[in-house]
Amino acid sequence: MDILYEDNHLLIVNKPAGMLTQGDATGDRSLLDLGKEYLKEKYHKPGAVYLTPAHRLDRPASGAVALARTDKAASRLAEQFRARATVEKIYLAAVESDRLPPSGEMRDALLIGGNKTTVADSVGAKNAALTYEVLAARHGRSLVKIKLLTGYKHQIRAQFAARRAPLTGDFRYAPNGAAQPLDNGRAIALHAWRLTLLHPTKREPLTVIAPPPAWVEAWGKFV
């Protein structure tokens, strides 16, 4: 467990790429499973350990995930992530294009399906927005820093893919499956780098930085 922050109400962890945030039908061990095991062993808890994710991070992505250790923290964090007024998420991503404008804003209508989100102005679509800055560009790829203004499933992946700039390693969203593999196909180049939220009990802003994985470091010192 790569612990970024811990107290009686909150546990924030740097999730590795390829790991589920929470268990699903595959039965694979998740970040939540590991978190409960960690707390049970560290604090010698005899019974069940309370721990619940305040938000989700895609399995092939890495980075900061906040987990609530109490009911009070869970309800307050859930409200924050719904309202987004006190939450800020900054991501790093590598995309398969070096032709993006240096910075900009993306606004799209997203249709969210079971396994895939698409840019489509149709009934039921959600208005999604993000801003980005290109940190470096070379050899057909770019390293970008992204600030989410909304937080829908696969939002970053869908919005960049719609502009012919799919994330490196993202075979689900690359046109015709034309994506470069990352970490033997287990990862996509998306890292939840900086997370800011209001502490659920102290009511003070809290910011954590999740150390970037190797694919970010390969670009050099841009963050």
Largest sheet: 11 strands, mixed
Query: What share of the residues does DSSP label as strand, in percent?
Result: 25-35%
Radius of gyration: 18 Å
Terminal residue distance: 23 Å
**And the CATH topology of the domain at 3-84 and 199-204?**
Pseudouridine synthase
Can you say what the CATH homologous superfamily of the domain at 3-84 and 199-204 is?
Pseudouridine synthase
State the helix count.
Answer: 4
Features:
eleven-stranded mixed β-sheet; Pseudouridine synthase; 4 helices; alpha+beta; 223 residues; 17% helix
Explain what the structure shows.
- By secondary structure, this protein is of the alpha+beta class.
- The protein has a domain at 3-84 and 199-204: Pseudouridine synthase (2-Layer Sandwich).
- The protein has 4 helices and 11 strands.
- Strands 1, 2, 3, 4, 5, 6, 7, 8, 9, 10 and 11 form an 11-stranded mixed β-sheet that branches.
- A hairpin with a 4-residue loop joins β6 (103-112) and β7.
- The protein is globular, with a radius of gyration of 18 Å.
- The model has no long low-confidence stretch (mean pLDDT 93).
Task: Give me a quick take on this structure.
This protein has 223 residues and is of the alpha+beta class. Helices cover 17% and strands 34% of the residues.
Reconstruct the topology from this structure.
Elements lengths: L2 E4 L3 E6 L15 H13 L8 E2 L8 E7 L2 H13 L4 E8 L7 E10 L4 E3 L6 E13 L2 E8 L6 H7 L28 E9 L6 E5 L4 H4 L6
Parallel strand pairs: 4-10
Antiparallel strand pairs: 1-2, 2-4, 3-4, 5-9, 5-10, 6-7, 6-8, 8-9, 10-11
